[in-house]
Every structure is written in C-alpha cells, then in structure tokens.
UniProtKB/TrEMBL annotation:
It is an enzyme of class 2 (transferase). The lineage of its organism: Eukaryota, Viridiplantae, Streptophyta, Embryophyta, Tracheophyta. This is DNA-directed DNA polymerase. One of its GO terms (biological process) is DNA-templated DNA replication. It comes from Oryza nivara. Its EC number is 2.7.7.7.
Amino acid sequence: MWHSGSISHIRNVLIVRQDYSHSSSGLGVTDNSAFKIGVYTNFNVQSNAQEWLEESKRISSIKTRNNEFFITNLWKITKVPTILHCTMSSGSELKTQWQPDSKIDASVLKISKVETSMQFDDKARDGYDGDEHECTAKNTVQDSPAKAPMSKESKDARKALATVYDKVLVVDNVKSARSVVQLLTSKYKNFIHACDTEVANIDVKQETPVSHGEVICFSIYSGNSDAEADFGNGKTCIWVDVLDGGRDVLMEFAPFFEDPSIRKVWHNYSFDSHVIENYGIKVAGFHADTMHLARLWDSSRRIDGGYSLEGLTNDHRVMGVVPKELQKIGKRSMKTIFGWKKIKKDGSAGKIISMEPVEVLQRDDREMWICYSSLDSMSTLRLYESLKSKLEKKHWTFDGCPRGSMYDFYEEYWRPFGALLVKMETAGMLVDRGYLSEIEKVAVAQRKLAADKFRKWASKYCPDAKYMNVNSDTQIRQLFFGGIENRCKPGETLPKSRTIKVPNDGSLIAEGKKTPKYRTIELFSIVEDLKTDLFTASGWPSVSGDALRSLAAFGGGKKGKEACHAIAALCEICSIDSLISNFILPLQGNHISCDEGRIHCSLNINTETGRLSARTPNLQNQPALEKDRYKIRQAFVAAPGNSLIVADYGQLELRILAHLASCKSMLDAFKAGGDFHSRTAMNMYQHIRDAVEEKKVLLEWHPQPGQEKPPVPLLKDAFGAERRKAKMLNFSIAYGKTPVGLARDWKVSVKEAKDTLKLWYRDRKEVLAWQMKQKELAQEKCEVYTLLGRSRRFPNMAHATSGQRGHIERAAINAPVQGSAADVAMCAMLEIDRNARLKELGWRLLLQVHDEVILEGPTESADLAKSIVVECMSKPFYGTNILNVELAVDAKCAQNWYAAK
DNA sequence: TTCCAAGGCGCC
DNA sequence: AAAGGGCGCCTTGGAA
C-alpha cells in the first residue's frame, strides 16, 4: 500500500492540524506541541498514526507564510500516500493537487487559504555575525500569545531600515540569478564583494556549521574605491532568496563563489564558508574577514560592543567618518527589528524578547527581512573599507624592524591563516565513539562508588547528606563551612543549617499520593570552625578540589583518617564528573559529529593575545596524558590507513622570553641544550653549581649503549626540590606571578618566596628590565607588542584601581610572550600548509593546541612527513628561524592522540 | 520555562 | 586589598 522512494506517486496530501487539547481524539497521536502537521494517508488513519508521525518528523521543514503552508523537502518522505484529503480540525476540508516536479529537492507544496497561524520549534540562526551569540529565540509558543506593541526604538529602527529596500535587487529565480552572476563575474569582477548569508536550522551553540544549517538567503554588496556596483534602477545590493526551492538559484552563484580571483570579504568567514560549502560549492577568493581585521586593530573589545557586525559598525572609533546613509541606518540587532514581547497576565509587556525563526521572518516580514539581511553585506563592506584604511595607517614593526603597515601584516599572515583555519575545521578529527561509550561505563561506575563512599561517611554526621547533591558547591560548602563568616563582607555569615530542595531519588514516598518530584533535606555543618585559607572571589570559602584536599581539621586517629578518605572520595567524584560531562559525553554527541564520525570544532582568532581558541567542542582542553585516567585522547584516531602526527614545541614561551629580553643566561642555557629547568636550578643555587662542578651530579645524561644507569646521580633526582621550584618559577615568571602568590602555593613565608625569586632573577637581569619596559609601554602607550608586531591594548592605567592596575601590569608582561608564541605557532602552521611535499603526500593539519599541531595523512609516508613537519616548525619563517634561540620540536606519529604524545 | 552569574576545572 | 597570563564550558541555584 505504501510507496517507497519515489515521490512521483504523490497526488494529494492531507494536512492535519491537531489541537493539543484534543490529542486523544481522532488520531491517537499524543505530543506536547501545540500542533501537528504532516503528510497523511486517507486510509487506516488510526493504525498508521505512529508511522505517520515518524514520517512527518523526517520532513525537514513545514513552514507558513501568510495563509499558506509550505512543505519543503517532501522528497525526504520515503513512504508516501496516494490519495489524500486535507482536513482541518475545525472540520473544513481542503483538497489540493500537487504536481510533482522532476527536481525533487526543490519541491514545494502550497496549500492556500488555511486560516491559522502556526509556530514551530525551530532553531534558527542569523549568519552568526560575531563573537557574541546573537541567537534567535527558540519559540515553542502555545496559544499564540498577544504581542506587546512595538517599542519606539524598534519602530524607528524599522523605519530607517526600510529605506534600504529601494537599493536591493531581489533575486528569486534562476534567470535573474544568471544575469546577476554574469555581471558579477565580468563587469564587476574586480570589485570587492561583501557577502553574507542567513542560515536556518542550526543551533550554533551546539552544532558545527560543517554539514549543518540551511542557507535561506544571502546578500552581496560590491564596490571598489570610488563606486558601488549598479544592477540597474539604482539597485546596488543583491539579495538572493534561497528558501522554498531556491537551491537552484544558489547554485547559479557557484561560478562567483568559486572563482579565486574574485575577492570576497566576510564577517566571520568560517561560518558562511561552511554553510555554503554544504551545498557543494567550494568558496574561494577569500579576501578579508572583518572580524579578524577588527581584532587586529584592537584586540580588547570584549566590553563596548565586541566584534559583532552591529557593535563594530555602530562604533565611530571603528568606522571613522561614517557615510551619511549608514549613520541613519546602522545595523540593529535582529531582536530590535523583529523581536516582540509577550503580554503578561496583568497586561504589561514581558521582559523576554521572542522572535520568529528566521525562515518565518523571511516569509512573513519579507520586505523588512530583505532590508535587514542586505544591510549586513553593505555594512560589512563599509566596515572592511574603514578597518583597512585604519590598519594601513598603523605602522608595522616586525621583530623590531619597520615593515610597512598592519594591513600588510594582515595580507601576509592573517588572511592565509584565516583560510587555513577554515580548512582545518572542514577536515575535523575522527573520533572513536565506541571507545568513548566503553570508558563512559567505567567512569560512571567509579563515580557511583566514590559517591556512595562519601555519602556514607557524611551521613554519619548529617543524616540528610545521604541525599545531597555532591556536585553542588553550595551544598558542599554548607556541609563543611556552615556558620562561617564571609571574608569580604563582614557580618554576612553562612547559616549553620539550611534546608535544600533536591530531586527525589524515589526513596521518599508520600502516603497515598504520587511520588513527589522533590524532597527537602536539612544540611548542617558537620565540623566546627573548619580552617581554610582558600576563598572565592566573593569571600566564601572555596570548595574546589585543591581547597578540600588541604582541609585537615578532623583531628587525627581513626576519625581523621576516615575524613581524609571521604574527602578524597569527594574530590574524585568531582573530577570524574567533570571528565564525563566535559569530554566523554559531548564527544559522543550526534550534534557535533556529522556522518563521517569526524568532529569539527571551530577555531577562532578571538583572544586578547592572538592565541587560537576552539569551541563546539573545545578540543584544546582535552585531558593531558598524566591526568587522563580514562585515556580520553585515545578516542581521537586516524582514519583507516592513516596516522596522526603530533608535534609540539619545547618550552616555546621561555624561548620567546629569552629572545624578547635578550637574556644572555637563558639564551646560553638553551644553546647548551638539555634540561632547561635543571639548568635554571643550577644557576639559582650555589650548592648545586658546586655539585655539578665537582661532578657529583649530572645535569643531563644520554645513555650510551650498554649503560643502564648514570655513573653519578642526575641533578633532577639529587636536587628534586630545587628543580621543581626552578621549574615552577620558569613557568610563573612569564605570567607575572607575585611573591605573595608564590608563598601561598609553596606554603612558605612571603620573605622566603621573595628570596627565591631573587635567585631566579640573579643572572637574568635582562628579564627584569624587559618586564619594566613592558609595564612602561602599557602605561604610556596603552599597548604592548608581539614578535610579529601585533599589539594588545590596555585601558588607561591612570583611571584604574590598584587592583586593575596590577592586572594590567601582569597582562602587559605576559601578552608579548604568549602572543609571540602564538605568532610562531601560526607561522609554523602556514609553513606546513605551504609545504608542497606534505600536500603531495596527502598530509593535512587538523588541530593546533597553542604549541602543538596535529596532522593526519597516509601511514606509509608518516616518517617522512614527520621530518618535514619538524623542519617547518623549527624554521617557521619561510624556512628560517629569526629568533636568537633554537626552536626545539618534538614529534611523534601514531594511530591516536594518546599514543602520539 | 529561561536566563544569568558564580564557582569550578580542563588545557597551554 | 589583593596578589599568575590566556581560553571554553560544565552545573548549580536564584532571579525574571
């Protein structure tokens, strides 16, 4: 009876609107959503309801505009009915005919004159314009709530925005697309083209745009230095409708997008590039990403607007002299233009701003939507022009030498780097989900074991602790520190005892009633006046793992021992829990990986110092080897026949510091090679120096064949404590750690910490001087610089509190070191990317973790590729190393990330 | 129901 | 008075 596969059998379609309140009647379909709509047969309704529901869910979109329903992608339904009615719950009946199109994927079903409004639980997204999340509201609206009147701000914004309409050429068919593309690829070929897409069906907080999201429209605005492109009748901006069967129209633009000689600028290129590539179009001709330009211009815009298109284009410091027309119609957020507030019961407007999904806006508020999305590409081009001219006026100093402008820097480094990052995102990493689900079982079991242990102990002192949430810091704090006074706000104390609502695990059963969802428990302090020296920023005692482990107030003896074990169990729960929820679970999520089982995180140049950051998911914070109790890195594998190369720099930041400060002692130590921390320890302590000179210990030892152990002890064994201190200082000093902080870490007096610091600086005076210079720069020019000449800005110190001032000074010391290391890592990646031999062999970059890169390629060439990668990384500046210090690189190849470290 | 800040923790 | 730089993201619990 059912026809599978081909849709050519479809003649009629039944649309059923089902009221939630009548869910038991008629169809036997129960669901919480307000309406159900779907393709239905006219026979055997009852028994096929479930099947129908399953099928309807496969429809990618059912949309409404005015009084029409649109069902797109009907072809996705494999089992389709033959004879159909359309019935509304009111009893009215509609019949419709649908002519199947041979081009199935563009099929659209139209049913007219259905009077109802519908809402769908759709996730949608504006083309992700910026760092700040500007998500459209998810709306599961029941009962179509009344909308509050539009605010004056919105009205004005809409009025101003509407003036854009006359300038927009709406392209909604293949024919007009062809003529526009003809102009773009010939007459206007040499213009700069700003492009922007709007995308539906994606939740950017959880999903990668690689193989997710549906382009519903895009706009192109083109110009050169003195004119804008003209598409006739004063139309200067192109807006292309891709919704409801516009895929063919989009495909017409392939020659434009794919032409590497046609220069395109984007605001957040990565996102748009991926969603367009999802249609099989390989975007080329990347010319600039205005987000990166803005970041290069000023990397400290976290406050005041951030890097969103709206924030940037409305900032006169960024836009300079804004063209008049843009002053009037600056970009406003989607919420301002299209958002609305619900009317509350008391008649007043609610606070939460709701919004229709973007594809609904495109149909229902079409003219405004066209203006809105067209303005994005217009703004992007203006932003590009403004930032370009600003960067052109900013001098570029490369490792101390003048080198043109910062726009030259962009062209040489960040433009290719931006393109490379997109390539890496597209590649993604293969994840072994089977392995993850195995270790998940182990982790969950171990967590339960530890939790039971802790609960058993705690409930001896506080009975209700049996039911507490051991993952809640509030509850833990109550248990250990009830009654304690806040450190920052004298007078405020944590109550001795507190009742807390927790989910009922089922053990609480009320007589004659349903098992309640929640229960209340009484938590009180199980210990008197517990001493701690770790506090949170707001003044309450910290209950972090570190803080808990150092608690030792339960006295000695059996009780004390028990307490120690219990606290250890508690720490274990927390750490296992964070491994599960941060890594084991998200890495298995379907929403991140796509079909091929690869995970595509997004790699962003969005940090203050120029380091990369990664997200959705963050692959840069996977547990490191020693702490990786479940060997999570083993889940990152190479595809069959392939291997991974993992290569990392040794002490990159310290080497950078040595170079930047021209510190002789450090440079010598690196030149001598061997263990840098041992050498630091030797330089700090006379007695170690003596021991080394008298050959009582060895600085380092390279075992000769036949030798099993060194003839005399190694420094790191004989003077382990000193070496550890030296190592800690090596890492801390670049971060600007203070004597007080060191004293706290080491649990020694501040004086002692100061003396140790003095030892470190004793033969590294240049570092001290260099740090002073950075602080002065931060104070006087409000900027410090990296090796390649990127700057980091700081707020004016004159107006800063002493606390803020301290932070600025420490950041000023750290930023050039961290930022230069990022520069080197970037150069290394570009060097690898440029290497023709690696490409030939089939190796490609997958990920960077600050001083480490990961590549994948054919196993048979792994060793050769590894040596090339090492070469690239040790000479990352076009085959040379401009530093006064060698760049040490360690590389391995293996089948997974864990084995390759 | 949804949003937000705080606290915590993973990485380099 | 506080006192290590740079990230992303999880859970909680209270507020809207």
